[in-house]
Design a protein that fits this description.
This protein is α+β, with helices and mostly antiparallel strands. It has 3 helices and 11 strands. Helix content is about 25%, strand content about 30%. It is rod-shaped. The relative contact order is 0.16.
């Protein structure tokens, strides 16, 4: 223990104390450097670990409904329906019409083509005609009528079906919308509908 407190040797004691201080400082520096190296390696390892990325969340909202402008644009992009692709059928609803009741007819239009087309019913080749034998009773071509069918433009996809209902006001008509006094009486009548030049088979109905 004496050698630690009072250095033994032929050198002055100051020399031995300086050597001890230098040795302690060197050891301290080595320890500090080792701690810094370990800390740096630990920090780099933590940074190298990939952080979990939040999963992307997608939401699906309702599809926007087609607007008038988009419908018009689509109509301009297709051609008119070919008569061979259109089929028209009519059914009296009902077949026996009570007195003071307007006869009504269900019209079904089938588009049997392979591509979409525009069905134009604005011309004179779309009409409802009522006959009794050889007697032409009434025609929608005489006076403006049947707005549910006449004066329309429908964009029909391949295989589409369009259903409309038309009515006869239970009166006679004449070309040029001339007034007539004779009212149709009870009996059997026939209704024929033409859509864009395509005629449906005439169907019978009875006025009571």
């Amino acid at each position: 223990m004496k050698g630690l407190r009072a250095p033994v040797g032929n050198q002055p004691s100051e020399v031995y104390w300086r050597r001890r201080i230098v040795l302690l400082v060197a050891v301290g520096v080595i320890v500090a450097l080792g701690w810094l190296i370990v800390s740096a390696l630990s920090s780099d390892g933590a940074k190298a670990e990939p952080s979990a990325k939040p999963e992307a969340v997608t939401t699906t909202g309702p599809e926007p409904e087609p607007t008038e402008s988009t419908t018009t644009s689509a109509s301009n992009a297709v051609g008119e329906c070919d008569a061979a692709a259109i089929e028209v059928s009519v059914a009296a609803n009902p077949a026996n019409v009570p007195a003071d009741t307007q006869p009504k007819f269900d019209v079904t239009i089938d588009q049997n083509g392979d591509v979409a087309c525009l069905l134009d019913t604005t011309g004179k080749n779309t009409k409802l005609v009522i006959t009794s034998g050889e007697d032409r009773i009434w025609s929608s071509a005489d006076c403006p009528a049947e707005q549910s069918l006449i004066g329309k433009e429908w964009l029909l996809d391949a295989g589409d079906t369009k259903d409309v209902q038309v009515a006869w006001p239970r009166i006679r008509s004449a070309e040029g919308c001339a007034a007539t006094d004779q009212a149709p009486g009870a009996g059997t009548y026939w209704a024929q509908v033409t859509v864009a030049g395509v005629k449906a088979d005439a169907v019978p109905f009875v006025l009571e």
